[in-house]
Prior knowledge:
By secondary structure, this protein is an alpha/beta fold. About 40% of the residues lie in helices and about 20% in strands. The strands form two sheets. The chain has an eight-stranded mixed beta sheet, sandwiched between helices. It has a seven-stranded parallel beta sheet with strand order 1-12-6-5-4-2-3, with helices on both faces.
Amino acid sequence: MKKRIFAGILTALMAASLVACGGAGDSAPAAGGDDAGTTTEAGAGDDGEKIIVGFAQVGHESDWRTASTKSVQDAFSEANGYDLEFVDCDNDSAKQIEAVRQFIQDDVDYIVIDPIVSTGWDTVLTECEDAGIPVIVIDRTIEDSDKYVSWVGSEFMNEGLAAGAWLKAYAEAKGISDINVLVIEGSNGSSAQIGRTDGFKKYADEEGWKIIDSQDGDFTQDGGQKVMESYCKSYAGKFNVVVCQNDNEAFGAMDAMKAAGVEYGVDKDVILISFDACKAGLEYVQAGDINADFMCYPLQGEYCAQIIQQLKNGEDVEKQTFMTEPWYVAEDILPSITYTNNSGKEVTEDLVVVTDAASQASY
Length: 363
Ligand code: GZL
């Protein structure tokens, strides 16, 4: 119990210090670069006991998720001094809340959550706080509570703005003036779906593009295929852009368009835009089937382990750490794009032309 009280005081002190120093977000090293994460020293507690970490993962819906899970499992390995309690919540929010409550009952030392949806968290996070168990959130965000010590992930609104900024510049470069878009959204209510949808829609509204339809593909290949099959039936010949909110949806959408005789990719009937930039996605970019793929960096396990080490050592931790996420394209026609990001800052992003997906992919 003594350990718990100490952890509770530590958490409160950390939160207070973060508020004091503004808790300004920190940007992580470039994805896939040499300094993307560092080897984590052994996590064993001071008394040599393993540090017990409970991890409630979204599910197993995509290549991105597989990489995310492996990243956390590798960081919290037994060899690194951890005992990881892993729960695959299978995209079921009730199951995820239940998993966190089980971690509290199991009296774990730290809890890591990738929240399926961004609301409904304050009650259970209060229970974690009362139990003196620090919570770290990765990837997606929690919007209805700040009762966690730190978050590591992506600025999803910027990902949506990136797709819009690229499409605007690309359409101008290609002389395409009439833009009619079909969107296959990610799991409804997830911060990734909300941010990518809102960011892209900002450009659509400003540029006068028509978003013909926008349906939930649940971030899966099957979901992407089913929605695209329906789109091909309902909107044949009426669309020239498809935005898939992750690569696995794009894989399914390509199968559906191929079956319907719709040509997509570079200099075809339909411009195909995707997110995640996993290796398989970049292979399609290299082949010219996907025109642009906006990275969402999944390897957050090392960052999580570093945060736990800092907490264990009584050090301050950043409240937010944002991943660095390149923009990948199939054609070498635009060197870079300048856009105004979600913080109102004018940012110039270099476009990475995919010439060797295997070496350019981060995961
Ligand atoms: C985004 C992540 C999303 C990915 C999908 O950070 O939560 O969930 O874009 C994954 O591939 O399913």
